[in-house]
Amino acid sequence: MSFLNETGLIFWAHLRANLRNPLWVLIGLTQPILYLVLFGPLLEGVAGSMGAGTDPWLVFTPGLIMQIGLFGSMFAGFAMVYELRAGIIERQRVTPASRGALLLGRVLKDMVVLMVQASILTLVAVLLFDLRPNPLGFVLTLILVAIIAAGMSSASYALALATRSEDSLASVLNMVSVPLLLLSGILLPMTLGPGWLQTLARLNPLSHTVDAARALFRGDFGSSDVYIGTLVTVSLALVLGLIGARTFAKENA
C-alpha cells in the first residue's frame, strides 16, 4: 500500500502541474492536427493504392495517434532535466519514497496525458473528416498507445538522468526518433513502398504497433497484425520499462 500511495502522490502532483498549465498539452497536439488537416486530404487521392474500399482516414488517424505516443513519451525526459536543475530530484532522493514509485507516478501521468491528446485528435477527425472508427477498436488503440508510451517514457527519464543535459538528450532522441518515425509507416502504410523498404520497416518494432492500431481502428480484431503488434508492443514496453527502472534506481541510489 505504501508503494501505491507514493505512486499516487507523484502521479497527482505531476498531473496537477499539467492541469494548471494545459498549454503544453495543447502544443503537443499542434503538429498532429496540422498533419491531419493539411496532409490527410492528400491521402484521398491515393486511397486506391491502399486497396479497394479503404478509408484513408482509418489508415492515417491511427498513425497520428502513434505519433503522439512516440514523441510525447520519448521527449518526456526533458522535464526530468528541468527537475534535476531545479533541485526537485535531489529533494525527492532524501525522502523514504520508493524509487520505483518516483518513476511510475511520472510514467502514469504521461500515459494519461497522451490518451487525452489521442482522444482529442480522434474527435477532430470525427467532426471534420467523418472518421468512423470501431468504438472498441478505438479504446484498444488507446491502451496500445499507453503501453508503448510507458516503455518509451521510462527509458526517456532514465536517459535524462544519465545525460543531465538538454543538448545531449536532444541529440540522442533525434538520432533515434527520426528513423523510428520514417520506418514505422505512421504517415503512409509501408506496403506502398518498395520491397527493401518494407523489409527494413519489419525490423522496426513500432511498425507492428502501427499495423495493430490500424487493424483495431477498422474493427478487424481477428487480424494477425493485432496479435503480432500487441505482442511486440508489450514486449518492447517491458524491456524499455525494465531498463528505465534499473537505470532510474541506480542513478537515484
From TrEMBL:
The keyword Membrane applies. It is found in: Cell membrane; Membrane. The chain crosses the membrane at residues 23-43, 63-82, 103-129, 135-160, 172-197, 226-249. Keywords: Antibiotic resistance, Cell membrane, Membrane, Transmembrane, Transmembrane helix, Transport. It is a multi-pass membrane protein. It holds the Pfam family ABC2_membrane. Residues 23-251 form the ABC transmembrane type-2 domain. It comes from the Bacteria. Its main location: membrane. InterPro entries: ABC2_TM, ABC2_TM_bact-type, ABC_2_transport, Nod_factor_ABC_transporter. Belongs to the ABC-2 integral membrane protein family. This is Transport permease protein. It comes from Rhodococcus oryzae.
